[in-house]
Amino acid sequence: MNTPPAAPKDSAIPKVSRAAQAAQVAMAACLGVMAVAVFTNVVLRYGFGSGVAASEELSRLLFVWMVFIGAAAAYPAGEHMAFTSLAGLLARRPMAFAVLTAVIRLLVIAACAMLAWGAWQQVVVGMGSRSVVMAYPAALLPLPALLCAVAIGVMAAIELIQRKPLDLGHGAEVE
Question: What one-character-per-residue DSSP string does 34-57 give?
Fold first, then answer.
């Protein structure tokens, strides 16, 4: 009786950092609260002719936070869109590949700086106003964009300093 070899214990389950776990928990909490708020509001509106006015505002706020938490968590996992065709061609030329990697990281840092600057301006504008129904500071809407830009920019800068090579694992998806 031949039995198949056992799979390695740790190779099938990827390691997830504490920050990634915290991001997943935060996103799940946002999604859970949004689902309950919207479901409750739908039942109250169609079943009883009334609703919770704060449900829409709360859902919008949580959705924005969930998206930017997810974007920041996706960066270190290499889950953002990647165009690896050119980089794949240069992978066999170490110097050209290193230069392209540095240019890409610098472009990511520049994009994060522009996003952070715009988000910061919106946060400042939002400090003086409140949301209509829930009366939370309007700065809470652009704040996650600022935090996301700073987080991704710092991660890209660390990768640039460490000269970490690009992950070309997306090659199977190239058409």
Answer: HHHHHHHHHHHHHHHS---THHHH
